[in-house]
C-alpha cells in the first residue's frame, strides 16, 4: 500500500484520490510537526494572558463579543462541535469523507491553525485505521466554511456521533474504541480550527475534477467511434485548422481523435461522401476542447485550495499575531464547481446529439434505431430517450448555486457561497454525463456492426474488443439497462483508457 506525506503545501489531486479511494496511508512531515507545535504556543500564550481573541477566548459568529474565561475554553470547544452538528440528508460517500479528513489534516499541517499536534495526529490515525465519520451531505452554506458537515467529522474525534468501521455503521465512541484510538478532549481554538474551512466542498471538488478529466478523455475516444460509424470527415481535425485558433484543449482533442482513427477505412475525406459533417462531429475539438480548458482552470483553483489555510482566526507564529479574516469563504470553489458543472453538462449535451445521429435513420445510412428487424424490435430507440432525460436533468442541475446567498448568524455572516451545493451538483452532473457517454458507446459500437468489410481505427478496435467482452451486439431486443450499466462501469472504472494505453494509444 502506498503512502502520502502531508506538509500543508504539496498535496496533489492524485494524492487525494489515492487516500480517498485506494486507502493510502497518511504521514505528517517532520517540518509540519514543528510548525504545528510553534503555532500552538501562540494560542496557549493568548489563553494564559486571557487576551480577547475571536474563537480562542470569545464565542462564535454573532457571539464574538462574548468573552469566555480560561476555565471554560474546553467546554466552549465541545459545545461548538455539538451545536454545529446540524447536518441532514444522506451520508456523504465514504471516499468523500476520507478526502475531507485528508484535506483538513493538510490545512492544519500548514501551522496557521493553532491545534495541538496530538489532535492532528488523531485525525490522521482515524484515516489510517479506517474510522470514517458519518457526515450528512446537506447543511453547509459554504461560509464560514463547511461548518455543519465538518462538525460531524469532529464528533467522532471526541467520541460522539456515528462512524463506519470495517464496513459497519456504529457510534463514534465504539468505532474509536474498536480501532484503539483515544478520543480527543478539545482544547482552546481546536474545535474552530477543525470545522472552519472549505474542506467538504473542496474534497468533493477534487474527486469531481479527477473524474471529469477521465470522462473527457473517454468522451474523445468514444466520439471517434461515432465519427467512424457515421463515415465522418477527418479533414476538420487537421492540425492547421487548430493552429489558427490555438486553444490548448482544442488542439489536444483533434490529436486524440486522429490517434483513435489511425488505419481506419471507415473515416472519409472532404467531398468523398459529403462536403461537411454536422457540428456534433465536425466541432468535437472545439466543444470537447473548451470543456477541457474549463476543467484545467478548475483544477488549478483546487490545487491552490487544498494547500491553503482556510480557517479563522489564523495564527502567525513568526509575528505572534492572530488575525481574523475570511479565508473560510468558499467563493473560489463555488464559482469553480458551478463552472465545472456547466462544462461537464456540455459533454452530455453534444454526446446525446451524436446518439441521435446514430439512431435516426433520416440522418445516416444505418437501420432505424440500429436494429435490422425494426417494428418487431425497437432497438436503441428508448436508449436515446434516456440520454435526453439525463441531459435535461443536467440542465436543471447546472443552474449556478453561487449566485444565491442567504444571511446567517444574525446577519454577521451576511454573504455565503453555497459552494458545497455547487460541488454536490457537479458530482451528480458528472454521473449523469458518464451515463450519456455510456449510451453513446453502446450505440456507436452497434452501428459498427453494420459496417462489415471496412476497417476500424486502431483505437476503435481496442475499445470494440474490450466492450464486446461484456456487451454483445444487439440482434434482437433485450433489457438494455444491463448493457448501459456495463458500458457505464467500463468508462467510470477507467478501463477504456487503460485498454488504449496498453496498446500504446495514449490520449492526452
Automatic annotation (TrEMBL):
Record's catalysed reaction(s): L-histidine = trans-urocanate + NH4(+)
Entry's Gene Ontology molecular function annotations: histidine ammonia-lyase activity
PROSITE patterns the UniProt entry points to: PAL_HISTIDASE
Alphabetical list of Pfam families matching this protein: Lyase_aromatic
Superkingdom of origin: Bacteria
Entry-annotated residues carrying 2,3-didehydroalanine (Ser): 144
Principal subcellular localization: cytoplasm
Top EC class of this enzyme: lyase
Keywords of this entry: Cytoplasm, Histidine metabolism, Lyase
Pathway annotation: Amino-acid degradation; L-histidine degradation into L-glutamate; N-formimidoyl-L-glutamate from L-histidine: step 1/3
HAMAP family linked to this entry: His_ammonia_lyase
Similarity-based family: Belongs to the PAL/histidase family.
UniProt protein name: Histidine ammonia-lyase
Organism per entry: Thermoanaerobacter pseudethanolicus (strain ATCC 33223 / 39E) (Clostridium thermohydrosulfuricum)
Gene of this entry: hutH
Amino acid at each position: 500500500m502506498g503512502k502520502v506525506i502531508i506538509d500543508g503545501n504539496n498535496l496533489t489531486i492524485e494524492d487525494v484520490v489515492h487516500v480517498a479511494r485506494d486507502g493510502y496511508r497518511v504521514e505528517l512531515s517532520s517540518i509540519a510537526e514543528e510548525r504545528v507545535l510553534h503555532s500552538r504556543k501562540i494560542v496557549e500564550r493568548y489563553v494564559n494572558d486571557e487576551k480577547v481573541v475571536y474563537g480562542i477566548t470569545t464565542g462564535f459568529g454573532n457571539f464574538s463579543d462574548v468573552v469566555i474565561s480560561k476555565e471554560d475554553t474546553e467546554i466552549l470547544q465541545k459545545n461548538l462541535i455539538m451545536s454545529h452538528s446540524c447536518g441532514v440528508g444522506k451520508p456523504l460517500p465514504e471516499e468523500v469523507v476520507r478526502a475531507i479528513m485528508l484535506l483538513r489534516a493538510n490545512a492544519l499541517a500548514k501551522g496557521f491553525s493553532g491545534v495541538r499536534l496530538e489532535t492532528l495526529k488523531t485525525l490522521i490515525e482515524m484515516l489510517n485505521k479506517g474510522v470514517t465519520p458519518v457526515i450528512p451531505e446537506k447543511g453547509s452554506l459554504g461560509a464560514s466554511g463547511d461548518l455543519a458537515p465538518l462538525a460531524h467529522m469532529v464528533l467522532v474525534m471526541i467520541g460522539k456521533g456515528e462512524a463506519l468501521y470495517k464496513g459497519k455503521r456504529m457510534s463514534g465512541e465504539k468505532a474509536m474504541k474498536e480501532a484503539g484510538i483515544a478520543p480527543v478532549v478539545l482544547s482552546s481554538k481546536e474545535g474552530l480550527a477543525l470545522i472552519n474551512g472549505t474542506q467538504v466542498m473542496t474534497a468533493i471538488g477534487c474527486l469531481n475534477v479527477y473524474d471529469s478529466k477521465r470522462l473527457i478523455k473517454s468522451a474523445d475516444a468514444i466520439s471517434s467511434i461515432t465519427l467512424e460509424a457515421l463515415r465522418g470527415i477527418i479533414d476538420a481535425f487537421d492540425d492547421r485548422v487548430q493552429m489558427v485558433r490555438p486553444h490548448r484543449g482544442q488542439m489536444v482533442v483533434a490529436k486524440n481523435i486522429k490517434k483513435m482513427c489511425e488505419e481506419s477505412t471507415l473515416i472519409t475525406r472532404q467531398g468523398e461522401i459529403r462536403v461537411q459533417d454536422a457540428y456534433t462531429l465536425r466541432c468535437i475539438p472545439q466543444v470537447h476542447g473548451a470543456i477541457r480548458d474549463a476543467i484545467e482552470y478548475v483544477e488549478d483553483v483546487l490545487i491552490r485550495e487544498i494547500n491553503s489555510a482556510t480557517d479563522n482566526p489564523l495564527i502567525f507564529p513568526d509575528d505572534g499575531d492572530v488575525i481574523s479574516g475570511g479565508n473560510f469563504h468558499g467563493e473560489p470553489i463555488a464559482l469553480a464547481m458551478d463552472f465545472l458543472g456547466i462544462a461537464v453538462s456540455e459533454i452530455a449535451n453534444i454526446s446525446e446529439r451524436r446518439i441521435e445521429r446514430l439512431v435516426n435513420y433520416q440522418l445516416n445510412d444505418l437501420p432505424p434505431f440500429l436494429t435490422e428487424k425494426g417494428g418487431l424490435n425497437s432497438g436503441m430507440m428508448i436508449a436515446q430517450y434516456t440520454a435526453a432525460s439525463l441531459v435535461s436533468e443536467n440542465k436543471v442541475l447546472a443552474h449556478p448555486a453561487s449566485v444565491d446567498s442567504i444571511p446567517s448568524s444574525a446577519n454577521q455572516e451576511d454573504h455565503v457561497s453555497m459552494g458545497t451545493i455547487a460541488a454536490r451538483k457537479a458530482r451528480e452532473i458528472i454521473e449523469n454525463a458518464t451515463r450519456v457517454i455510456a449510451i453513446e458507446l453502446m450505440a456507436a459500437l452497434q452501428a459498427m456492426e453494420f459496417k462489415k468489410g471496412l476497417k476500424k481505427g486502431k483505437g476503435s478496435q481496442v475499445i470494440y474488443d474490450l466492450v464486446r467482452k461484456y456487451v454483445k451486439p444487439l440482434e434482437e431486443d433485450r433489457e438494455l439497462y444491463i448493457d448501459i450499466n456495463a458500458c457505464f462501469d467500463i468508462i467510470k472504472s477507467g478501463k477504456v483508457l487503460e485498454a488504449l494505453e496498453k496498446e500504446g494509444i495514449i490520449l492526452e
